[in-house]
Specification:
The complex is a heterodimer of chains A (149) and B (144). Chain A has 149 residues and is α+β, with helices and mostly antiparallel strands. Chain A has one domain: Thiol Ester Dehydrase, Chain A. Helix content of chain A is 21%, strand content 34%. Chain A contains four helices and six strands, in the order E-H-H-H-H-E-E-E-E-E. Chain A is elongated and about 55 Å long. Chain A starts with 13 loop residues before the first strand and ends with a strand. The model of chain A has no long low-confidence stretch (mean pLDDT 93). In chain B, a hairpin with a 5-residue loop joins strand 4 and strand 5. The mean pLDDT of chain B is 95. Chain B has one domain: Thiol Ester Dehydrase, Chain A (Roll). Chain B has 144 residues and is an alpha+beta fold. Chain B has a five-stranded antiparallel β-sheet with strand order 1-3-4-5-2, with helices on one face. Classes of the chains: A alpha+beta (149), B alpha+beta (144). The interface between A and B is medium-sized, with 36 and 34 residues. Strand 2 of chain A pairs antiparallel with strand 2 of chain B, so a sheet runs across the interface.
Chain lengths: 149, 144
């Protein structure tokens, strides 16, 4: 089961250099034809400085880093029993190609819940506040992991 | 996709434009795995998925479905207006599913000097089975 003494614990920072091609690749994988994610001129016409990242792009630094397995191991969560329960983003400013964004993963909550069928689950909330290379807050990501028991 | 949406014109209860995606092919799971960095074989390897209890094989990444919802949102409100976006993953999506995203405006409010609309969204398959529920808020300009 998740180790609740770890609430408040922080892990090694996740850092990611945002590339134009990776933004396009994410939009293409989703099948999102919006030209602002593909074409710099189209994005500028719509009031952006360059192509912005897609709304769910912040999953990329998390999934490509080694943070998630580290956090899951450290919290003694059974990897095979983990479900992604919720994902939430708050956006403070646009993230563009060339930006380097960095966040410290932090465990903000661990609680046990019982579902409708009476099964117990541990709910673990991990938060990452991303800053850009100028130290400005750009976005906050919060993931709820559910460990079935 | 320039949208001239104004806070004044939006009413609580207004529907957001629906978006239909799919049928989803296994190839899209592979593309999404590469794009996102989520290489859990549950999404790309039928043998692995069956071995961990998925009798029909692979399931889609939940975050792919959230990506569909993001497409629906920023196809309607400009991306730069989006302030918050959150979802709860409610059900598994399988290859062949067609996903429809719909939603409506549930609140209008002023916050931090901005005019915010708050909307709820849902992604369902062709049988009405709910895959993702969520909400978002966006800051819109006033006409005046």
């Amino acid at each position: 089961m998740a180790d609740s003494s770890k609430i408040g614990k922080e892990y090694a920072p996740v850092s990611w250099e945002v590339e134009r091609g990776k933004i396009r690749e994410m939009a293409k994988a989703i099948g999102d034809p919006n030209p602002i994610y593909q074409d710099r001129e189209a994005a500028i016409k719509e009031g952006y400085k360059d192509i912005p990242v897609t709304p769910t792009f912040l999953t990329v630094p998390m999934m490509f880093s080694t943070s998630m397995p580290t956090v899951i191991n450290d919290l003694k969560i059974n990897f095979l029993m983990v479900l992604h329960g919720e994902e939430q983003y708050e956006y403070y400013q646009e993230i563009y190609p060339g930006d380097t964004i960095t966040a410290v993963p932090k465990v903000v909550n661990i609680e046990e819940k019982t579902n409708k069928s009476g099964k117990k689950m541990d709910m673990v909330t991990i938060e990452l506040l991303y800053k850009n290379q100028r130290g400005e807050n750009v976005a906050r990501a919060r993931s709820l992991l559910v460990e079935r028991k | 996709m320039a949208n001239n949406l104004y806070f004044d014109d939006i009413k609580v209860g207004d529907a957001i434009p629906t978006l239909t995606k799919g049928p989803i092919a296994k190839l899209q799971h592979v593309m999404y795995a590469g794009a996102s960095g989520d290489f859990n074989p549950l999404h790309t390897d039928d043998d692995f998925a069956k071995a961990v209890g998925m009798k029909d094989g692979v399931i889609a990444h939940g975050m792919l479905i959230m990506g569909f919802v993001g497409q629906a949102i920023t196809g309607w409100v400009p991306k730069k207006c989006l302030r918050k976006f959150g979802v709860r993953f409610a059900g598994m999506t399988k290859p062949g599913n067609t996903i429809t995203i719909s939603g409506k405006v549930i609140d209008k409010k002023q916050e931090g000097g901005e005019n915010l609309i708050v909307c709820e969204v849902v992604a369902q398959d062709e049988t009405g089975d709910v895959k993702v529920t969520g909400s978002f808020s966006a800051a819109l300009p006033m006409k005046g």
